[in-house]
Each structure stands twice: as structure tokens, then as C-alpha cells.
Design goal:
mainly alpha, globular
């Protein structure tokens, strides 16, 4: 990373962090699944009875970070939610780094970060004490490292960083394993094609596959980067709770596996299935409180329609260029988008929520920039679209941040479809 990129990354982090902090402590009560994760963090601090263990169905790292924040800032709304703002800002920086790796342009990378922020999903999830934003921030940093190493002759260092970060992401929530699986699949496919001596008859410098890719990257490097390092960093998160007892560590994994692979029978008001998430068919109401006769404080996890829906067209462009032109940047965008989204289709659980789509939706900002920077399109078009996304973000802010508040009339106007209610 150049010094200019480092300065821009710090500026993006600070700007995003400040934006996420505004009104963070409203409301000063639990919102949605904070009721599960904050008590678990309190238990880690010894503030509640040690047994039974609370929330054993998820790995501990994100809850440990929430616990550290409660110890630093107190057992209050700021203490619960502050770490989420840090990792939300990290996620914005990470998608900037992804854009820099793919587009080699500061302007395009900054536009990617802005679109990801204006998609509303990241903003809402980064202001609540849940696990997803922690896995997102760490997972996107890992993806950025992988993308930066993809075209290098010696990718070992960057792939190792990616692997370690994927382990930490999985230690927050097991969905952090999805992009790691994508990386493993990419490396396996490329190595298999090289072993078969595959050649493209009309080979081009922009091809996603080359027979000379990573000439010094050996099998043991792959095992180290994408198996051993993730395992080490993942297990490290459990040691503060379980020590070095192999039986306790294995039992913790068994409990997590059992819960996350069991088909859910009971329904949920806001449940939705994975095919519906890109369409924003069913949002989740994190908060809906009447503050006056005609005013409400609302937090709806939905997504900005001016970002989410155009992203589907951009992804079609990405798929076309990957299939027909074999472009490496289109290949990586498609791999991580569809890998993070379609992985949910493989799980036997029937209980799903649109916020599971957050990683794929954030990666989709890369697809939008990819499509809008194509040769032949005016340069101003990308920034005009960023402005349009910002307008959509501003319009939806009253239902995304409780501190803003809104009237029932405005709330009903923003609920465009019956399925959103």
C-alpha cells in the first residue's frame, strides 16, 4: 500500500467511524438480538452467573470484544455498541482496499467505499451489538488481502494475512468461513488447471487463469495460508473461555455445529429465504417504538433500493465479462459475491434473515463500480450514481437510525411493499 493509499484509508476510517457514532446510544435499551449477545458479554465479565453458558451457539470473539467495550465504557448503550462502529468503519476501509486491488484507481476505490456505506445495510448493522459486523469487517479485510495477492508472483505473505483474518472472522460467526471456502476453491481450481496444463488459445493479460500464476506458491504454502493459520487464529479466540483443554474446545465446536446445522422448525416474524434477499423482499425491523402520538423511532434492516436493485444489473455485466472475456477482476467479484450469498442455500436451516446477505451486498458495490467504469461510459456517470445512492441513503435515514425519528406518515410512505410491513 502506498503512503497516499494509507492516508486515504485512515481518512475513510475516521469519517465512517464518526458517522456511525452519531446518535449511537439511542435507544438506551436492547435492540433486536442485543438481548442475546450483550448478556453473553456480561457473563464473560463475571457480571452474571457463570452457568448456564449464554449464547453457546456462536464463537466467542465478537462477544469478547463487546465485553471489553463494556469494561471500558460501562454497561450501557455506548459500551454495547461501540465495537460495532469500529468494525463497521473497518469494513468500509476494507471494501476501499478491495476496490484499489481490482481497479487500480483511487477514485474508483473511494466510490466503492461510499456505495457500500450508502447501501444502508452496513450502516444499520454497524450500530447494533450483534455479531455480523465483526465477521464482515474481518472477512472483507481478508478478501482485500487475497485480491491484492491474486496477481502477484509471490502471494504468500498476503494470502497468509488473508488466512489469519478469515480465522478471526470465523471466530466471530461461522459465516466468516464462506469467503475462506471461496479462496480455497479458487486456489484449488487454478492449481488443478495448471496440473492439467490448461491453456487459453487466445490468452490475454487480463485472464483470470494463467499457467504461470503463482510460480513459487506450493501446496504447503496453501495448507499454511488457508488451513493452519485460520485454525490457529480461530482457536485462539476460545482460549480465554476454555483454556487449552482439547475436550472443552472440541465440545464447544460440537455445540456450535449442532445449532447451526439443525433445521429450524419454529417460524419468525421477519424470517426470509436466501433467494429473496437481493430483491429486498422481507426486511427485519430491529426497532419500532412510538415516541409520540404520530412519531416513531425505527431501525429497519432493509438496504438502499437505489443500490441493491441496480447491483443485480451490474452483477449481470460482471458475469458476462467473466464468462466471455475471462477478466480476472470480474471473476473475483463474482466468486466472492455468489460464494457469500449462495453458501446459505447449502445449509439445512430454514430460518434465515436478510442481514445474512450483508457480506454479499457489500461485495456488490464492487460490481456497481466495475459496471459504471467500463470503457465508453462518461467518467462523471460513476459519481452521479454515488450521489444518487447518497440521496437514497438520506431518504431512508429516518428508518435506519432511531435518533432521527420520523412520523408514521413518512414511515408508511417508505414501506413501499406489503411484505416490508
Amino acid at each position: 500500500m502506498t503512503s497516499q493509499s494509507a492516508v486515504i484509508a485512515v481518512a475513510i476510517f475516521l469519517a465512517a467511524h464518526v458517522a456511525l457514532l452519531i446518535g449511537l446510544t439511542t435507544p438506551d435499551k436492547f435492540v433486536f438480538d442485543e438481548v442475546h449477545y450483550v448478556p453473553a458479554a456480561r457473563q464473560m465479565l463475571g457480571l452474571t452467573a457463570p452457568q448456564p453458558m449464554l449464547n453457546p451457539m456462536h464463537p466467542p470473539l465478537a462477544k469478547e470484544l463487546i465485553a471489553a467495550s463494556i469494561a471500558a465504557f460501562g454497561d450501557n448503550a455506548l459500551g454495547w455498541r461501540y465495537p460495532a462502529t469500529l468494525f463497521g468503519a473497518l469494513a468500509v476501509v476494507a471494501i476501499y482496499l478491495c476496490g484499489l486491488a481490482l481497479f487500480r484507481s483511487q477514485g474508483c476505490a473511494i466510490a466503492t467505499a461510499l456505495i457500500a456505506f450508502f447501501n444502508q445495510m452496513l450502516y444499520v448493522q454497524a450500530r447494533i451489538a450483534m455479531l455480523d459486523i465483526f465477521a464482515l469487517g474481518l472477512g472483507l479485510l481478508a478478501i482485500a488481502a487475497f485480491m491484492n495477492g491474486f496477481r502477484r508472483e509471490r502471494p504468500q505473505a498476503l494470502f497468509a494475512i488473508a488466512g489469519a483474518l478469515f480465522g478471526f472472522a470465523a471466530a466471530c460467526k461461522w459465516s466468516g468461513l464462506f469467503p475462506l471456502a471461496v479462496c480455497i476453491a479458487i486456489v484449488a481450481v487454478i492449481r488443478l488447471m495448471q496440473r492439467w496444463h490448461t491453456l487459453f488459445a487466445d490468452a490475454k493479460p487480463t485472464d483470470w487463469y494463467r499457467p504461470d500464476l503463482w510460480p513459487t506458491f506450493r501446496a504447503h504454502d496453501a495448507v499454511l495460508c488457508f488451513a493452519l493459520l485460520p485454525a490457529v487464529t480461530y482457536v485462539a479466540a476460545f482460549i480465554p473461555l476454555y483454556g487449552l483443554s482439547p475436550s472443552d474446545l472440541l465440545e464447544a465446536q460440537r455445540r456450535i455445529f449442532a445449532d447451526n446445522t439443525t433445521t429450524a422448525i419454529a417460524g419468525h416474524t421477519y424470517m426470509s429465504s436466501w433467494p429473496s434477499w437481493p430483491l429486498l423482499a422481507r426486511p427485519v425491523w430491529f426497532l419500532f417504538d412510538k415516541t409520540a402520538d404520530d412519531n416513531v423511532a425505527a431501525v429497519v434492516f432493509l438496504g438502499n433500493p437505489l443500490v441493491a436493485w441496480p447491483a443485480l444489473l451490474a452483477l449481470a455485466v460482471v458475469l458476462r465479462d467473466f464468462i466471455l472475456a475471462r477478466r480476472w477482476d470480474a471473476f473475483l467479484i463474482a466468486a466472492f459475491y455468489f460464494g457469500c450469498w449462495l453458501a446459505w442455500a447449502l445449509l439445512p436451516r430454514t430460518l434465515g434473515f436478510i442481514y445474512y446477505y450483508l457480506p454479499a451486498a457489500t461485495v456488490a458495490s464492487l460490481a456497481l463500480v466495475y459496471a459504471l467504469r467500463r470503457e465508453g461510459l462518461p467518467r462523471w456517470l460513476l459519481w452521479a450514481y454515488v450521489g444518487l445512492a447518497a440521496i437514497g441513503f438520506a431518504v431512508m435515514l429516518p428508518i435506519s437510525a432511531a435518533f432521527v425519528g420520523t412520523s408514521m406518515q413518512t414511515f408508511n410512505r417508505l414501506m413501499l411493499f406489503q411484505s416490508w410491513i
